[in-house]
Write a structure and sequence with these properties.
heterodimer; A: about 280 residues; Spore Coat Polysaccharide Biosynthesis Protein SpsA, Chain A; four-stranded mixed β-sheet; about 25% strand; globular; B: about 140 residues; alpha+beta; 3 helices
């Protein structure tokens, strides 16, 4: 049985998803020891990092806004960034994955321990987190437990699946929702562009007999976009700047919403030092 | 029933507290030390430290929760004092146990108990060490 990680990275003007995916891959290789397949739209510069590269085209035309800290100012200021959101190949992950068991990760999900390997050995067809924690402890994701009061919300950031009939059904339904998003948008009272979290939630919930799933990954740690990683040391300590406060976490997997900090030179160097 | 004047809050509805109405002289030094010995800057710094510490402690405890999970016979179990106690007193070598996913899993009592104890011991040690480090911090910037 083969196990590996699949990442998707499609370029944009604002964010360098290729560099972000490289960083993610270095951490996966170091802490999970698994091969990584990249689904992308151009041959990666660091090709040797990857087990396989699958060239694909994103047809998504959505854009998304993100409020991040403005690094050009010495005082705390925020800026709103609008960027193209090319997330449409994710629903194809099952058919693209060369592995029997796949860990599908967002490229902005940083792996700092081997906890995910526990779930690979479980005899589960499909696993994803159904809750997220704000690691700064300031905001919180309580409001994201349900999609507009309809069904529980899953997070497509980390998904573990095999190629069983059950997993295939979820991915097929995921694609159907993506293709007919306007209809499902109205059904779930959603007022935003297509999001894989929503499609995955509806597909998994419905195909579980319209009931919340018992089998879940533990809550995911999120770092909201207004905060940024200041430093990662070689002991896996992550120093996070939360506007006016500093917190330290260590040995913790983290979904980082502030893409700018993930592509910064200092963080790239820190990850290189940690993984070399 | 109390009568309510339009525009006035109902007596049972909490509104702004009128301190003078309770008949306490808040300028009295017997209640409050008006000569503060701690500067407001120090109070701000202390509060800031506590905010940083609480956030770090919360993140640490969430991570520890996940580290306490182990897999056994394709089942997911958490190393808790209750489960360790239960398995310690159960006399059969094999039994069915409901895992974290509410699935009955056939387990080998001794094997699982050993794994749970090892996990519990090492994870709690790690938690204690890191928790003590966080407690020793004097300033938020010491985290760096």
């Amino acid at each position: 049985m083969t196990t590996g990680v699949v990442l998707h990275a499609f370029g944009g003007d604002e964010f360098d998803y290729y560099t972000i995916a490289d960083n993610c891959t270095k951490l996966v290789t170091k802490f999970l020891g698994l091969p990584v397949t990249l689904v992308t739209d151009k041959e990666p510069v660091n090709r040797s990092l990857y087990d396989q590269v699958i060239l694909s085209a994103s047809l998504a035309t959505w854009s998304r806004t993100l409020v991040v800290r403005d690094d050009t100012s010495s005082e705390y200021k925020e800026k709103t960034m609008k960027y193209p959101f090319k997330n449409d190949t994710r629903a194809l992950s099952l058919e693209l994955s060369p592995y029997d068991v796949t860990i599908l990760l967002d490229s902005d999900y940083l792996v700092f321990n081997s906890e995910l390997l526990k779930f690979v050995t479980l005899d589960c067809d499909f696993l994803c987190p159904w809750f997220a924690h704000d690691i700064t402890g300031k905001g919180g994701y309580e409001g994201f437990r349900y999609i507009n009061g309809t069904i529980p919300q899953a997070w497509a950031t980390v998904v573990i699946f095999n190629k069983s009939i059950a997993s295939r059904a979820i991915f097929d339904y995921w694609k159907l929702i993506q293709k007919n998003y306007e209809y499902y948008q109205a059904l779930m009272l959603i007022n935003s562009h297509f999001r894989n979290d929503y499609a995955l939630s509806l597909a998994a919930h419905t195909l579980n007999g319209c009931r919340p799933l018992d089998e879940k990954l533990p809550p995911m740690m999120m770092l909201p976009a207004r905060n940024y990683i200041e430093k990662i040391d070689t002991n896996k300590n992550i120093i996070i700047n939360c506007m006016d406060t500093i917190i330290k976490v260590s040995n913790t997997n983290l979904h980082v919403m502030n893409k700018l900090c993930l592509q910064s030179q200092s963080i790239c160097q820190d990850i290189d030092a940690l993984t070399s | 029933m109390d009568s309510v004047t339009p525009g006035e809050p109902h007596p049972l509805v909490c509104g702004p507290v009128k301190f003078e109405s309770v008949g306490v002289d808040f300028s009295s030094s017997t209640l409050y030390n008006l000569n503060m010995t701690t500067s407001s800057e120090t109070l701000i710094e202390f509060t800031q430290l506590k905010i940083d510490q609480q956030a770090s402690k919360l993140a640490l405890s969430e991570r520890i929760e996940q580290q306490l999970l182990i897999t056994h016979n394709s089942g997911l179990f958490k190393a808790t004092t209750e489960l360790i106690s239960f398995l310690s007193v159960w006399d059969a070598d094999e039994l069915y146990l409901s895992d974290m996913y509410n699935t009955p899993v056939k387990i080998n009592r001794n094997e699982l108990l050993t794994e749970l104890k090892q996990t519990y011991q090492s994870v709690m040690n790690e938690w204690h060490c890191e928790f003590e480090q966080l407690k020793k911090l004097r300033r938020g910037k010491d985290l760096k």
